[in-house]
Amino acid sequence: MTELQHPPLNWEASATATHPQVSTSLPPEVETCLKNARFLHLATCDALYPHVSLMNYTYLPSTPFDPSPVIIMTTNPSSKKTLNLISNPRVSLLVHDWVSHRPPTRNPDPTREGSPPPQATRSSLASLLLNINTSALSSISATINGTARMVEQGSEEEAWCKERHLENNTFGDQVMEERGLFGARRDPLATEGDGGASCYIEGEEVRVVLVGVKEGRIADWKGGVKDWVIMSPSEQRERGRQPMVNGVA
Length: 249
What we know:
With 249 residues, this protein is α+β, with helices and mostly antiparallel strands. The chain is 28% helix and 25% strand. The protein has helices at 2-5, 28-36, 80-87, 118-121, 124-131, 134-137, 156-168, 173-181, 198-201, 233-238, and strands at residues 21-23, 39-45, 50-56, 58-60, 70-75, 90-96, 140-150, 207-212, 215-220, 225-230. It is globular and about 60 Å long.
């Protein structure tokens, strides 16, 4: 009870809309985050429990088939997330630009295993990444709420989206070097130069999932939160608002 009466200075109630921002385009910090992050977390849900998946993705401000910002992902048709999307297309996405590898603790635990492996801590580059001051590089996490759509199989839109998604997730030799740095083994299904992307994007059975970016929430490392909504000028006028771009009239 005392904590609620005297919250920390960076505390903000986040159960309702906080500092809402309405504009015709994405907040710049969200767009930057989507362009630069390697993965996002996709949350789907059936009638019982949420299911979270780590996803490769491609962000595009528009496509020949949709003038609005979209996120492209691919999924196995028999996966849990696909079954969830078919029964309930409502999703939440989380993307952030924070360094996610856990740095060594002040008092190392000899029983702790996992990321990062011992060989990573012996590399000067890995040590730099693991011990870097994350607050200097990171700024926000962005939660995006939306409705997912399965693109029609065999359509022109599906072929276009797969091509863009493959281009955006082809990393060449660098990703192989990173995997070796952190102790990962080379994927035997990976095609030379594509970082293994072809095996989960190009297959005929792979489904393309599109999520339109319409609204979400920004959270910074200090605990501040801000909600945002994308509306066209006509939608803003219908709701009695003066059209805004990036939150500025």
